[in-house]
User: What shape does this take?
Amino acid sequence: MTANSMPAIKVSGLTKRFGEVLAVNNISFHVNNGELFGFLGPNGAGKTTTINMLTGLARLDAGTINISSIECTRNPKAAQHLTGIVPDESNLYPELTGFENLCFCASLYGIRKIERQKRAKELLDTFSLTDAANRKFAEYSKGMKRKLTFAAGIIHQPPILFLDEPTTGIDVASARQVRQIIADLHHKGTTIFLTTHYIEEAERLCERIAFIVNGQIVRTDRTADLLQPIKGKNVLIISIADGAKLPEGLSSAFPQYQFQSNMPGQIRVESLEPVNVGPIVRFLEDQNTPVIEARRHLPSLEDVFIQVTGIEAALMRKEKEKAGGGGGNQ
Amino acid sequence: MKRWIAFWNILAKDMRAYYLKPPNISWGIIFPLAWTGMFFIRSGSGLESVMTLLPGVMTISILFGTTSMLAVTITFERRGRSFERLLLAPIFLELLMLAKTSGAIIFGIVNAFVPVVIAAFLVDLSGITWALVIPAIIMIGIVSTFLGLFIAVSVSEIFEAQTFSNFFRFPMIFLCGLFFPIVSLPIFIRWLSYILPVTYGVDILHGAINRQHIMSFTLDFLVLGAFCIVLFALSLYNVKKKWIL
Assistant: This one.
């Protein structure tokens, strides 16, 4: 394998333990040059710990890490000039202005004054922060802080970029802008490792996705391949009254459909043929199961995620938003 | 070259963000002024005591200036996670920590000269061996800063850093020969003086200012250098062990 055909990131047997807790359990994956790779999982799945190990903020207990064919398992500094990181929390200097923060971050990569000032101005413009350039970071709104943190992560134009939940906790417009910038960076050839709990975000942006649950990768595949089994499927979601039970005989009454009830008060109907709503609703009502709502559902990566991990995506979102606030899932 | 751009900018950022802020400038001037005034007045022996007190007041100004500032700046950046940004940059940890401590060293050195400037108005300083005083101030600045660094990276909260600093600083006032000769200390605690780095810095200053030193200057400088290396190495070890989990 030549250096160019080597993956941008290659991880093998990565393991991390915090006391009794096995945060990352023997995971292996690779990210190709110029690829946008998604790391999808709920809170506490091991996403941030993995990024921390890849970037040198956490020691690994076992495994190997290669970045751009540089062996950096024991020496994470060796590849830090090639990587940019946008952490899950804004971590710039509150007492510096937006412009000063960007210039300072550029200087950490040895960029000279004229060049770093030029890049800082360009990025402030790209992220629509020019008007706030001379305001202190402490005075920025949450969305502005996230955007400036993103800008600081790419000021040195890294060929490999780690994005840890880049749209969590920011407003709709900012989230859209950040997603567009991610797409542009990918288009320009940047290798991107993106962790997110927003399934739609991963579906929209990533070429390949790994599902991580409880520190283990349960599936890695191309996004198109992950979506293949649900293509052409018709899904109906029926909400029933709280406490109502899934009536017996539903499956035998409608053998052409598949019924599931992953969440209390909700029935999921799947079929390759169009689902006829009326008879099912009538059957449920006859069985003393009041129907609140029946809606058609367009199958997405969320369905694959639920199928593979057994985790309800809505619960995952709620949990994360409780922890981090906001929502960039628009 | 790239690494030195990073080094210089970390230092410049810290100077601008912390050390050149009005509260810290006033601390840097008022604190040594207060110590100077307090000891000169309390000594009650007139202007002749100025030269005797000068080494101790200079040292105490450096010690409190460096340890207080570093305890706040490092712990504050660690808590705000902005320190992670430095750890993620392609700079060796050794160079990074030197950049982070250089501001405090400069701050300490400047503090040391506040009592000197006051003394210059009161007594004749022409007899002082400046060729010894200057390197001694620098070495005391470095060793105090590294002591502050060691404290800052051993704790996680600012108040812990302040408390831990006082645990070292206040005994040093009495044990290191700043104002009371080590030989006048009870014999059973005298050994403590020799395991504290400031003792050796103050000894050089007493020798350079009053010709009253108890150890050779070479030994003083060597021991100070050894303390600097050990404290810096221990701090790096703690950063790697505690901050890179």
Observations:
- DSSP finds eleven helices and 14 strands in chain A.
- The mean pLDDT of chain A is 88.
- The longest strand of chain A covers residues 21-31.
- Chain A has two domains: 9-227, 232-298.
